[in-house]
């Protein structure tokens, strides 16, 4: 008998005994052991009614049942946010890479367990057609490249999750949605904030009318950019400066928070004279939107001021402030209102989740179930139309009237 056999037997017997409360231990209660229902492990809530319920055990799909994604472009957003987010996904997994850097792609593939044969150059994207594990692509390329790679992916039958902004012109955005419709594939724009739990909680609070009507919005998304050359300073590649890169979060937030479309816009832009970085794109923009209900939104975005990603909402009977609203993490939701004879401030505790994983899983579920994403291509089309109107307002120095979109721009709310 080998020396290790008895200890191993002992471990097996101990494990079996624990499952039934053997070896003198009482059996676990149903609250402690849980049960399997519908192929999922469920636990009754062990907390008292005064505490919020737990989130439950994670219920990821087996890896082989998850939607396989090819990540196209291996820049910072892909390597620092998108690929790490797959580790927290329950519905999706990365199965292929498309990159212009073979050396970088080989390193990244090894890090994420992607087969060498599933790594392709940009000119080889069509080889994804031959890989049944790839059902969707995540486009993480510079803005001007979004249209080409969306159309190429759609032509080989792959669903498309595209980084924002959708493209650099309204015509390109419309062409992308048309191409995906013709090919019968889903197109979603990666508006991560619309899937972030604090933003979902804020939307629910607005719709509840707990604080009365929403009257004013203040949104800021600013940062200090470094030296060039960067594609973000190239007007052709970026399609603009601070507005389409980070100001877009403020613009989109005013729409999904209110559930309205703006009817008037006014904008002012500025770039420091002599700074070659901003010869083709704006450094800073301030813009105001007016909505049919009378609500007014004031938004600020800049590449030249200390990081501020704040959101403040003003209601008839209170206000909401969200710190780090448009950041990757660190959101805090605070409500100010009158309670009795005094003013009160309370923080709504919302469990954070990886917003990239949330949006990827949402799209994966839509692909699996054949349904419309919450942020389809039409949502990106509308924002591009509004950004072009803001640039026109800034150029002409006057407010511009806005036309409503031709149809709905959002699908059903995410789970």
Multimer state: single chain
CATH superfamily of the largest domain: Dihydrodipicolinate Reductase, domain 2
Approximately how much beta-strand content do the residues carry? 15-25%
**How many separate structural domains?**
2
Output the radius of gyration: 25 Å
Structural class: alpha/beta
What does this structure look like?
The chain has about 425 residues and is an alpha/beta fold. It folds into 2 domains: about 65-190, Rossmann fold (3-Layer(aba) Sandwich), CATH 3.40.50.720; about 195-350 and about 375-400, Dihydrodipicolinate Reductase, domain 2. The protein has 11 helices and 18 strands. It has helices at about 5-20, 30-35, 75-85, 100-110, 145-155, 170-185, 195-210, 235-240, 240-260, 355-370, 375-395, and strands at about 35, 40, 65-70, 90-100, 120, 135-140, 160, 185-190, 215-225, 265-270, 285-290, 295-300, 305-310, 310-315, 320-325, 330-340, 340-350, 400. Strands 9, 10, 11, 12, 13, 14, 15, 16, 17 and 18 form a 10-stranded mixed β-sheet that branches. A 6-stranded parallel β-sheet has the order 5-4-3-6-7-8, sandwiched between helices. Strands 1-2 form a two-stranded antiparallel sheet. A hairpin with a 5-residue loop joins strand 11 and strand 12. Helix 5 (about 145-155) packs parallel to helix 6 (about 170-185) and helix 6 packs antiparallel against helix 11 (about 375-395). The longest helix is centred in the C-terminal third of the chain and has 20 residues, at about 375-395. It is globular, with a radius of gyration of 25 Å. The termini are far apart. Mean pLDDT is about 95; it is low at about 1-5 and about 10-20.
């Amino acid at each position: 008998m080998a020396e290790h056999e008895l200890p191993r037997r002992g471990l097996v017997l101990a494990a079996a005994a624990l499952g039934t409360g053997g070896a003198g231990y009482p059996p676990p209660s149903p609250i402690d052991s849980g049960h399997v229902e519908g192929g999922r492990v469920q636990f009754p809530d062990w907390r008292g009614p005064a505490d919020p319920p737990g989130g439950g055990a994670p219920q990821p799909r087996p890896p082989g049942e998850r939607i396989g994604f090819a990540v196209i472009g291996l820049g910072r957003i892909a390597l620092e946010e998108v690929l790490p987010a797959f580790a927290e996904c329950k519905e999706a997994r990365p199965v292929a890479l498309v990159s212009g850097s073979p050396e970088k792609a080989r390193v990244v593939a090894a890090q994420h367990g992607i087969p060498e044969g599933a790594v392709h150059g940009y000119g080889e994207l069509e080889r994804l057609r031959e890989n049944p594990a790839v059902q969707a692509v995540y486009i993480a390329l510079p803005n001007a490249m979004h249209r080409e790679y969306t159309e190429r992916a759609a032509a080989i039958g792959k669903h498309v999750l595209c980084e924002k902004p959708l493209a650099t012109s309204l015509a390109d955005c419309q062409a992308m949605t048309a191409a995906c419709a013709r090919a019968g594939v889903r197109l979603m724009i990666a508006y991560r904030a619309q899937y972030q739990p604090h933003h979902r909680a804020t939307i629910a609070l607005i719709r509840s009318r707990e604080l009365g009507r929403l009257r004013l919005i203040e949104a800021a998304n600013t940062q200090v950019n470094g030296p060039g050359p960067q594609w973000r300073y190239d007007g052709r590649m970026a399609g603009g400066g601070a507005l389409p890169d980070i100001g877009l979060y403020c613009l989109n937030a005013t729409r999904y928070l209110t559930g309205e479309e703006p009817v008037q816009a006014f904008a002012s832009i500025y770039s420091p004279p002599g700074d070659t970085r901003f010869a083709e794109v704006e450094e800073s923009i301030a813009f105001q939107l007016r909505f049919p209900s009378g609500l007014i939104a004031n938004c600020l975005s800049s590449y030249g001021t200390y990081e501020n990603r704040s959101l403040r909402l003003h209601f008839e009977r209170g206000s909401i402030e969200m710190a780090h609203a448009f950041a990757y993490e660190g959101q805090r939701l605070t409500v100010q209102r009158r309670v009795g004879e005094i003013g009160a401030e309370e923080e709504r505790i919302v469990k954070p989740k990886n917003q990239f994983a949330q949006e990827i899983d949402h799209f994966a579920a839509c692909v699996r179930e054949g349904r419309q994403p919450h942020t389809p291509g039409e949502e990106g089309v509308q924002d591009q139309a509004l950004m072009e109107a803001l640039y026109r307002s800034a150029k002409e120095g006057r407010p511009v009237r806005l036309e409503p979109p031709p149809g709905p721009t959002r699908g059903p709310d995410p789970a």
